[in-house]
Amino acid sequence: MSDTSIPKSAVQDAAPVRPRWKTILLRPEAMTFVLLILATLGASLLSPFFADIAYILESFTYYSEYAIVGLVLTLVIISGEIDLSGAAMMALSACLFGITYQAGYPISVAILVSLISGVAMGWFNAILVIRFKLPSIIVTIGTLTLFRGIAQVIAGDRSISKFPSWFVGIDYQYVLNLPIPVIVFCVVALALGVILGGTVLGRQIYQIGTSAIAAQHAGIRVNRIKTGLFIGMGVASSVAGLLTASRLASVRYDLASGAELQMVLIVMLGGTYIFGGRGSIIGTFLAAWLLVIIATGMTVANIPINAQLTVLGLLLIISIIATNIIYSRTQR
Amino acid sequence: ADPIKIVFVGKNTGNPYFDSLVQGFVDGCDKLGCEFEFVAPATAEATSQIPFITAQIQRGVDVIATSPNSPDALNQVLDRARAKGILVLSVNGDMTGNEEHRDAAILPTDFEKVGADQVELVGSLIDYEGEIAILSATTEAPDQNKWIVGMNEALANDPKYAKMKLVATVYGDDQPEKSTTEMEALLSTYPNLRGVISPTTVGIAASAQVVQSAGKADTVKVTGLGTPNQMRPFIKDGTVEAFQLWSPYNEGWLASHFAVGVKDGTIKNEVGATFEVPNLGTITINPLNSINTQAGLTTFDASNIDDFNF
Amino acid sequence: MPVSDTPVLSARGISKQFGGVEVLSDVDLDLSAGEIHALLGENGAGKSTFAKILSGVHRPTRGTLALNGNPVEVPNPIAAQNLGITLIHQEPISFPDMSVTENLVLGRHDGALLGRVPWAQMERNANELMDMLRVSIDVTKPMRGLSIADQQMVEIARALASDSRLIIMDEPTAPLTPKEVETLFSIARRLRDQGRTIIFISHRLEEVQALCDRATIFRDGHLVETANVADLSDEDIIRLMIGRPLKEMMHRSGAKIGDVALEVRELSLPGKFHDISFTVRHGEIVGLAGLVGAGRTDVARAVFGVAPAASGSIAVKGKTVEIADPSDAIELGLAFVPEDRAVAGIFGTLPVDQNITAAVPGKIAPHGFIRSAIERALAEKSVKDLRIRLAALRQPIGELSGGNQQKSILARWLHTDPDILILDEPTRGIDIGVKAEFYDMIGTLAANGRGVLLISSELPELLYLCDRILVMSEGELTADIAGDEATQESVMRAAVPTKGKHGTGGSPPEHNEVAL
Amino acid sequence: MNSLTAALRFILLRREAGIAVMLVLFSLVVSAIEPRFLSLDTLRIVMLAVPLILIAGMGQMMVLLARHVDLSIGSILGFSAIVAGMAFRDLPEMPWWFGFFIATFVGAALGLVNGAVVTLFRLPSIIVTLGTLSLYRGVLFLISDARQVDPQYIPRPLIEMSQTSPIFGIPWIIFIALTIALISYVFLDHTRLGRQIYAIGSNPVAAPLRGISVVPVTLLVFTLSGALAGLAGVLYASRFGYVNPSITGVGFEFTVIAAVVVGGVSINGGVGTVLGTVLGVIFLGAVSVALPILGVSAFWRDAIYGAVIIIALLIDRSVRESGIRSATLEARA
Ligand SMILES: Nc1ncnc2c1ncn2[C@@H]1O[C@H](COP(=O)(O)OP(=O)(O)OP(=O)(O)O)[C@@H](O)[C@H]1O
Ligand SMILES: Nc1ncnc2c1ncn2[C@@H]1O[C@H](COP(=O)(O)OP(=O)(O)OP(=O)(O)O)[C@@H](O)[C@H]1O
Ligand SMILES: [Mg+2]
Ligand SMILES: [Mg+2]
């Protein structure tokens, strides 16, 4: 252990260090995990129809798109920024996909257009935040209105459909008994988890979120990394938009409307610190399942949506407060 | 045997129109001995109904009735329900162009006739002479668009309406604020406007409110489709002379009878088949497996509005 | 000097801890009506902390205060105001979007919260105050963009406007010109004659001699002496402050000085600095002196690429280079220890080891993935070499004391094996023992052939360490003095502004300046 | 610098002038395409479109001045409107004007909750109010049983506030909005408390050092924002004649924030005036009225609002920057 190699005399005037087990248990992810277990038990008691893996997986596909964006959003929030435009980017990129396909281009071109639009929108956010030094939270409130507004302008109120049958129904394609959106989610989680936890890039994201100024002084390319994260948000959103298009076999401008809140909810539930510098992919991963279990459990028990909304709103507030308390306790 | 389980997945909660429809279901099931539940998402967004429908499949219900928020976003999940042997009904609106994804549609009236009925109503209010306008829901709303086509056809083809001129069709997106602004713009743009048809509940309420505020109720006749509860004050104070609707209650009543009948085999869900429903008489299954509760619209005015509460 | 019997304010056993470190221990002090009382001590001795306790910004960990013999609590600045205690902060605090007039009265508790703001009268009063201080500041302008000196003047005016019995001035003269200082002094004397009490904090001993009646000297958080100024010589004061006579602070013997490592040519950044040229050689320690706000930090930031200059060029080892970002500078062998350690140096909530290795990602992750064994080994070596005191490497660095945080930042840069080190106030807020260690380290770095640019506000430190001292004033380089020719007087002469809107003539201070 | 250019710069640097110019230019361009736009009638429509936004905008402005933001006002509006509407429906003997108190009180209470969470846990208001945005909407569904309050229950005199006028043919509702704006002006510009709101936003760290009680003032600001959103709620019932839990107030926050930010209120706190906000509200009102008159689809509205928010942010930033630059240069000159 490294700790023991430091001479005893040096330790005298420094504050005592918390035992390692305490630091682990005090992490908000532990709270998410406990909630996940409680929610699963609660949902099983609430409705006899709940405890069915196939059903839970199917329900997960409905949230998988938000959860995938939430994974990237986790990195963005750890880096000290936020992006509320994910849902609007999903809608606009999906509408562009639909329009391109409807205009007679092959579906591969349409997919490309959608991905490129994701890059462009993420970049647009990044320019406003980084080049013009505007706060990301208000910038992305502006762009969420703008992006969805453009989607509305180009797609109107109609839904665009009649995609080729191979493209449709990705949520009913299975690999190893898992629907593809679930696989995508798990793969993205694994990849981002490794990047965040094991690589220099991940380390630097934490450092940027802890203090962007100190990071810049340490030679970390803060602007480049943040730009990359915003673009990552755009790409993830357009992938999520495509998954949604495939699942629904149609796209509309109001696709994923209001989902920005769900995305933030997932990340917050996973214990990522709203002020940046702390958080984890495993937390977001667990939180996505937690959200699905809670929402699905209440829906299958026919609990009215009024109560569901209240529960979710409370959950968001409580998880922010709890995370905040945990983190402000563990730093003096 | 277990009672038949019927669930109705509404457009969204808080929509008073559906209270009466649900009551029709409840009364129908009381009489027929089926189990009924009503669920609805918070918003009328295209995909918000999907988790609710999946949950009902998981619960193993026998019949899913829904008023779809989108003509095609539900296709996949409804197909899955039907594959499980669940009877899928589209209630109060159809999935135009996607009829193969539901078993039958329960419509409140013959949608082909709504347009003509509405033109006749506004014509009667303005002595079949002058400029009229339409304030609709959204540009792509399928039912409203079908009716607007009907209105245009009636105006073009029926010599009775030769002196009436449709000057504008505008859209308030079923939002009170937008509808109000659009209606005010109409009044300002067309000073000679004589009548407004608003075939949507949000739109007609906003239009009535605007002409009332502007003190133009005498010169501009507002009519359209609305619910009696929503329109009652305007009828009482004379802002609106008459408007129309069908009976949502009868829709629920018919849907429950149809569902139970199909499930226990007494009704054949085939085009051209007929069956009897108490209070409604003989119902015929029309092309594309769609059935109506009544042929024409009911007109509400000062003489009868107090007989209705929905 | 009318000194009445009951003290206006008496402090007993005042102690203050920050994060377990005691920065003020058992201070007993009595202040009388109608005296100007100097607080003296090295940087970090606890002067500002004591002032903040009196004015309710901080609460003491232990100890009591009494006003005119009655025990009082000063839980917050509002309470202090109500008790008639006003603090002029060391760093001017202001509301940048609001006018000077409003800055003068905001938060003053006279009148109902919903009472009308008497704009016209306020403006008149503000103008009167500015006249009294003999400064020409447009009181309707927002504070944003006022020079530091003007901001300090507004701060002083605010304290004058309040009817306080005790006014604490924390280094009010640091950014002021001699003429402004003289105005301030005459006002302070007038207030004393009205029977008010003034606490005057300054590093300039001649100001203390000129103004103050009594002086209290702090060292490492302890009150070491309170005496009449008349009974104290400068030598006494310095000895009391640093615990040893000034004589020991002598020039360091010069190391072998090699080729030019860093050359800066005609660097300018409008609004910050203008036409700055200098060189730093291998093995050379170059000092950069100046008053607070002279623009030294801005130059350092420009050289390191944090906020690049608008024009001019930089050459490293003879080659002209483009430095647009700190990462460019690091690749060229530069390192920069910033002055604002808490904001620009440490990652407060991250472990010490991650802080130490932050600038060498290639070393800890040879194939892209971080190898924690390597990382720990690097960090442990630094902890041993620099004698960083900590409990565990995984401890958040924010829990370490300031000196050990600063050592960790230095360690971070030593891992990059830099040729040129820019150190901006490296010993600020560091206790005296660690300071000596730092001097040794800086000397060793130069002896190993590294070029060092040392920015410091502590003149003795510069005089002791540097081979050459550059002086900046109001964004321009005003002197380049060889180490053995530099004296406190010659440096200060170049540091005090000779133009600008306050300094009307080029008159350097007449008296022998000793700035510590 | 001579005094004329100084005066000119002073005026041009003021955001109000910029918005006024934008408003005039916009009106000219629109009326060049559609001359009818420049009419008294249009003015009336614009004026009728803005009172709710203006009233809630005053509250939002105070929140922004204190360097916070309140995203929950749409839900607060809906919540207060529903509670007032249910009172009208279930307590028919209640005097109709009592609805104003109910709605304002409910709004104030919800705003206070926002403020309490923000100050108690030191959380960013934007996240807290994003949470209460959905929480309040959920609770509002619960208490209303997801049922709308039908027009027949909205008292006639309340509806007439949007229709009848005390003077000059200007409806009551516009008078109420202008009165609120006037009171806000006096409050923010001429009372100590009002100035303290600016101070907190201008420098939150300095404010407590200067003896300003930041927590109570922050609570007050959120409470006022809630109260004004609540007042807008009861006026919603007046203007639209009914209250629906899933429609009333949805998306309202974006409209209000757009208007206030366009009006020159800085999201960095401490900067903004009542006049600017009023102009911003009118500008957005003019845009939303111009669209149908020009025959542009309402689908454009959101895109335009989004673009307007972003442009306003950019303007705010460049004004700030050039302000700092010129001031620094001046100080050195
Ligand atoms: N808020 C704080 N948190 C932690 N440590 C602090 C804080 N404020 C001051 N200190 C520490 O307390 C010690 C005394 O600081 P103080 O500001 O009182 O010194 P000073 O005598 O005013 O020095 P200077 O002459 O540089 O102004 C320093 O070591 C400083 O780092
Ligand atoms: N409150 C302020 N408003 C605007 N500019 C400021 C303010 N404070 C400082 N500056 C800018 O900072 C510059 C001086 O600060 P800087 O830190 O570079 O000087 P310094 O000589 O390093 O002083 P220090 O000894 O405090 O480190 C000035 O040129 C000034 O433009
Ligand atoms: Mg100090
Ligand atoms: Mg500096």
CATH third-level topology of chain D: ABC transporter involved in vitamin B12 uptake, BtuC
Q: What is Rg of chain A?
A: 21 Å
Strand content of chain D: under 5%
Low-confidence spans of chain D: 329-333
Termini separation of chain D (Å)? 11 Å
CATH architecture of chain D: Orthogonal Bundle
DSSP helical segment count of chain D: 15
Level of helix content of chain A? over 70%
Strand and helix order of chain D? HHHHHHHHHHHHHHH
What is the average per-residue confidence, as pLDDT of chain A, rounded to a whole number? 86
CATH top level of chain D is Mainly Alpha
Which hetero compounds are present in the coordinates?
Answer: adenosine-5'-triphosphate, magnesium ion
Number of strands of chain D: 0
The overall pLDDT average of chain D reads: 86
Summarize this structure as a short list of keywords or feature phrases.
heterotetramer, C: 516 residues, alpha/beta, Rossmann fold, 3 domains, 6-stranded mixed beta sheet, 18 helices, globular, disordered C terminus, D: 333 residues, mainly alpha, ABC transporter involved in vitamin B12 uptake, BtuC, 15 helices, binds adenosine-5'-triphosphate, binds magnesium ion
What does this molecule look like?
The complex is a heterotetramer of chains A (332), B (310), C (516) and D (333). Chain A is an all-alpha fold and 332 residues long. Chain C has 516 residues and is α/β, with parallel strands linked by helices. Chain C has 18 helices and 20 strands. Chain C is globular, with a radius of gyration of 24 Å. In chain C, 52% of the residues are buried. The C terminus of chain C is likely disordered. In chain D, 74% of the residues lie in helices and 0% in strands. In chain D, helix 2 runs parallel beside helix 14 and helix 13 crosses helix 14. Chain D starts with a helix and ends with a helix. Chains in contact: A-B, A-C, A-D, B-D, C-D. Chains A and D meet through helix 7, helix 12 and helix 14 of A and helix 7, helix 13 and helix 15 of D. Bound molecules: adenosine-5'-triphosphate (2 copies) and magnesium ion (2 copies).
